[in-house]
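Suppose a colleague, Dr. K., hands you the sequence of a protein chain of 539 amino acids and asks what its three-dimensional shape might be. Before reaching for any lab equipment, you can write down a predicted structure in token form. Begin with the sequence itself:
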Amino acid sequence: MYQVYIRSFADGNGDGIGDIAGLRARLPYLRELGVDAVWINPWYPSPMADGGYDVSDYRGIDPSFGTLAEAEEMIAEAHALGLRVVLDIVPNHTSDEHRWFTDALKAAPGSPERERYVFRDGGGPDGSLPPNDWRSRFGGRAWTRITEPDGTPGQWYLHLFAAEQPDLNWDSREVWAEFESILRFWFDRGVDGFRVDVAHGLAKRPGLPDIGLPEEALFDEERRRENHPHWDLDSVHEIYQTWRKIADSYAGDRLFVAEAHVHEDRLPLYVRQDELHQAFNFAFLKAPWESKELRAVIDGCVGSLATVGAPPTWVLSNHDVPRHVTRYGRDCTRTLEHDVRPGPSDRELGLRRARAAALLTMALPGSAYLYQGEELGLWEVEDLPEESLQDPTWRRSGHTVRGRDGCRVPLPWSGLDAPFGFGPKGSEPWLPQPSGWAGWTAQAQSGTPGSMVELYRAALRLRQGQPGFRGEALSWLETPDGVLGFERSPVLRCLVNFSEEPFPLPRKWGVLLASDRVTGGLLPKDTTVWLWGGGASRA
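The predicted structure, expressed as tokens, is then:
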């Protein structure tokens, strides 16, 4: 699965913003890369307070991206190339410009219009205090007070993210029916599935009790706490059971994948046979570049999901975290916050580890999710000018936290100068691109032996055709400390060397693919190799 952050993928009309026209033009590139499907971040009409995750109309296309007719044509063209299309669905909240919310602001407390969202009276004698201590994921409190139609201070509404993203009330059957209709709208147009945003957050505990945790603990420890009032409530699963029935009513395969930030032992609940199909494995993304921790994470993920018969997923980067080339170039590779930088990143080291991590990821059983640009070896852009920053975290933090823009910089496709083929020559991308990307464009790397894009193409080609990758389990090999080794079949092995000492490769096994140069039968540090043997074909 290849993730397309559409604003930054390819600009077809020269306005500096990626769009459907640009995506359509690059579909052959994705087919040649060797992926099976594309997941497109929200392309719906939106004021863009949070990069499209504030949706004002779930059945349309934002004019900056194109039209619904263009979207339908793109879906058909992708299918003709053998690519499936997965959209983002945002069910936890809407935009504050959604018709439902503007109607709610005009209506009275307790009205059906307000029941679609989470409105509450404030605390204190005059209602001037927020209803509870919940905090926004983007900083500050999770409540905003409105002005009633008569001009008086009124109720408060909940927004676990930006104030422009009011939370929907999933106790309302009208909300249920609306999203069932939205799913059918897109399934009817040929969409193959959905990534479910904030899948663990839709249900809220009755009474909306206080969390009672300090703000700095809200987004880590709270997910391990039982009976949390707004994360990972059991009542979310009834929603997904209903959605699964809708998906299963359509011919062919359909897919739901959950973005669920929950503890490992809770993740299988989201991918039971009558619920969603897959869930992102964030433990793998968060793991440091260290053999024992990675093995523990792999075992934990494979083992826990096997209890419900669900396939694991593996991901290294996405639109919400720093790119892994930059993370792996630091001693503390666990750091996922964009503004926590424990020292400079060693780009050469990061690239070497990123190449090794890519082959490790694609050798594991299950689905691999790739974030646009990782196949080019792109790094996090950490020096964007402050005046260019657009992530809502930057504003809500009082300009102290730069946010996620550094992993969302528009892709370089060709040429020696900006916009590097992202748009027509002379156009200005919505975020500035580093001049150092001239040597990292898709054009510069294509056909160049040893380049990152050619490594990805080779790996994806082998994943499709080599015996042992499809449906085979993982079996660990006996290896010394600092080396990971496993078999996917009697004819296919993967070895990763994390240690300082070169590791001797086993005899009678041929090198199928290596992340970096292997000479003298020795596997260097920070290198992954795929081996074949036992009469396996290399075709």
